[in-house]
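> run fold homeobox-leucine zipper protein revoluta
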Amino acid sequence: MQVAPVHRESSSSGSITKHLTDNGKYVRYTAEQVEALERVYAECPKPSSLRRQQLIRECPILADIEPKQIKVWFQNRRCREKQRKESSRLQIVNRKLTAMNKLLMEENDRLQKQVSQLVCENGFMQQQLQTAPTATDARCESVVATPQHSLRDANNPSGLLSIAEETLSEFLSKATGTAVEWVQMPGMKPGPDSIGIFSISQSCSGVAARACSLVSLEPNKIAEILKDRPSWFRDCRNLEVFTMFPAGNGGTIELVYSQIYAPTTLAPAQDMWTLRYTTSLDNGSLVVCERSLSGSGAGPNAAAAAQFVRAEMLPSGYLIRPCEEGGSIIHVVDHLNLQAWSVPEVLRPLYESSKALAQKMTIAALRYVRQIAHETSGEAVYGLGREPAVLRIFNQRLSRGFNDAINGFNDDGWSLMNADGAEDVIIAVNSTKNLIGSNNPAHSHSFLGGIICAKASMLLQNVVPAVLICFLREHRAEWADFSVDAYSAALWKAGSYAYPGMRPMRFTGSQITMPLGHTIEKEELLEVIRLEGHSLAQEDTFVSQDIHLLQICSGIDESAVGACSELIFAPIDEMFPDDAPLLPSGFRIIPLESKTKDTQEVLTTNRTLDLTSSLEVGPAINHATVDGSSCHSLRSVLTIAFQFPFESNMQDSVATMARQYVRSVISSVQRVAMAVSPSGLSPVLGPKLSAGSPEALTLAHWICQSYSYHLGAELLRSDSVGGDSVLKNLWHHPDAILCCSLKSLPVFIFANQAGLDMLETTLVALQDITLDKIFDESGRKALYTEFAKLMQQGFACLPAGICMSTMGRNASYEQAAAWKVLSAEENAVHCIAFSFVNWSFL
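> ok
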């Protein structure tokens, strides 16, 4: 539809407005008519023909105007509104581009200075080589020397001020000078829609990252936000200011002790003593700079000091400059020495990666400040009527609770139950865990005996972390056990049932996601998950047993280099109070960046490795040439931690359940990882199913080949039996396929997804089910009758019958086939396979 052009003219009194209609004639509107039309426009910008006719009837002052003319007025009004919004948007973009241009010009000046410095250094080195060829070391470091300052030597204000001024000088030389050779952060190109300009260093000591950005907040507000490090740095466990001295220019000097969580169960936590200096510069800029102080100070809790490794912060901080157009320009520098020697060799790339530091500290700081600015402007929209501050607190509590579970600090009351280190799953217990809301003791769970945490870490290969986390988020039924979720959720309600005697439940498979909020770039999502379930107890047949989970998902951008991906959740009451107690569990996947010299030696083994069993010696590694651009996604560390409340007399039972459940989740995640593995890379396969059992892919080939050999037909389609697709297609086969061992009391060693669904069990619990338990009396008789035939000719066909699940439900099947699975190498019988066709619950 062609919108008529708008021409506005005002009479001398300003009470008449002219509009040009479609036929080129002007229509004059009085101020009263325009006011009436504006009121309708505020309610409905695009009224229908009937609404316009109704408007003429209801407003006598519009009676002399034709409906077509009113239609044109609304067209013109919408056009003006669109132009106004576009003009406002362009003004905002222009301000951003102006500020970005200023930053880029400053960056260009810095790079020119750096080029000049390198040219001078090159000339000097050439001269030295010509005049003193025997010189042993003529290198010029790209980072300023950072002398160590003792904590004991900094006990007086004058000494602290001297250290503070030196820290300020070194920080400014990194933020705006050439003290560090910065290179652009991969995948973070500057532009009007970007967060800012990000750089990392690949040549300085330790790891370093730098950022510049424009934020619509005042400098003092930004400094206040950034100094509260635990609010935005999720790895910061604690930050305490022990001493504060006034300094010149209204500044302050603080002695700060901080603790940093370990990202995985395989590394120690870290702590730091730092001096933090806040001051104003002559040009009106505000500076917050910080550096480590050496010394033997153990922190406020000397008993817990053994769990921490002392990290070092080299001169770092924030330079905040006010803008003439409003807002501020922020320069952020993070420079740390994370003591890579203190972690296993396989984790050292993480502690030596400036990209990882940039993602978890530098970029996180700017994103948090921009999020606060976005909320302050009133543009943020959140679900379920929650205030932004409340949702931020939920995010922080979920992350903090998950980090506490992974680290298991002694001063929090955690202790290990299997302290010998022989188990693949670590079990920790906390009998002093305080499960209360943030401020309301009325929500206390004082009847609980404590918390059991089952956790494990393993190495994933050829899996993109963001893809795996997204799959786990969207397909919870692929790895979660509804009955375990129901157990954890039950203790949040008054009528809880003690494990293992809680009432049997059935998960309907329905998962409803209710968004609560997300960050500006949607790299972090907060949502409520409702899992629909029903009790299988006869008296509660029609009673809904829905489970509600508060969940945070982050790191789902596949293009973010070095970003950690997380899925953390906690059961909550359906009323969802602001101070609801939370017991977080979940997954964390951290990519491991290969060193430059090792990019051609990337791990390509075809199964997920358990790190806890190979830290000292390490597994044999196959090396292959891989495109260096994809190396960052080939290896990552997956950490799983699940927390379970227990009553005082159920500790051992819940610990056993927790260990089995986490092992089951690990098996499921390995299966999922294989399914989402990128094409062209070796897929990830699960561990051995039981003692003496082959790898899953090998067993899948044996099952299909033996079926074809004995029955003369193909179990899978001909296009589904090549390479690694056999296991995937066997897993998703519609018929229930199970394998049992050849023992005096046969037990199941494998089942595909349909088989697990029919038996209502998991891969781990499957190994405790004997063959005779799944058949009813008539089914057992049919099996005994055909068993001799099965062993003689290699296969047997069973008539229609009924199987029983572990939950006591009956499942009917139209027919079943049994055949011997032969190992390809020895041509010996490995196990017996069963296929139940067209099964369904009665």
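The chain has a mean pLDDT of 77.
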